[in-house]
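#onboarding

Welcome to the new folks! Below is a worked example of what a typical request in this channel looks like: someone posts a single protein sequence, and someone else replies with the predicted structure as tokens. Don't worry about understanding the tokens yet, we'll cover that in week two.

Example request:
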Amino acid sequence: MTDESNSGEKPTFRELRQRVQAKIANKKLRIQKHGGNLNKIPGGFLIEEAANDVRQEEERAGLEKLTTVDPLTGLLNLRGYERRQKEETERATRNKHPLVVASLDLNDLKTTNDTSGHQKGDEYLKTVAEIIKETTRLIDVAARVGGDEFRVLLTETDIDEAKVWLERLRKKFEEKGVNISVGLSTVDLKMNIMHSIELADQRMYQDKRTQKKENGK
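Example response:
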């Protein structure tokens, strides 16, 4: 399990220009392939068409983000997670790579909302999301799947590597004063992944009970 940060950036002007140039080249090839005469087509027409294609792709990407990303935390929402989960389980099955799923649940979000207000609760959720982003990689799948529930699919990772990740995660949470319960489960690719998620949930609730017992609650 390599430590590659999970982050995303908007394309730069240079990247957009390269995409437009690539589309112009592709359009020229298609025209030539079908016997068209490039000399009769104004260069500006191809540039405009290519630019429009790129704009439409960006708009589609923006709409896709609205429907698959949690607006508060910037993590995937449940819909976005389930789409990536399907892709990653298929890839893991094809390449025989291990997968581990982690269920996370905030222990005191309701108390924070009740005593300090929902704005403070939102800040708390954002802090949790930032820690998850810091400790996961681009190839992992991190999501907020409920009000105070998060899920992480650790790709190309076995259970021992996942436990190392969990220790690093807990340390980060402790540093920020975040009280959270976590459960891990190896994904059995021969079974429906919901079986592994349910097992991770059970272990997360066991972790929650253990913490309450240790704290005398």
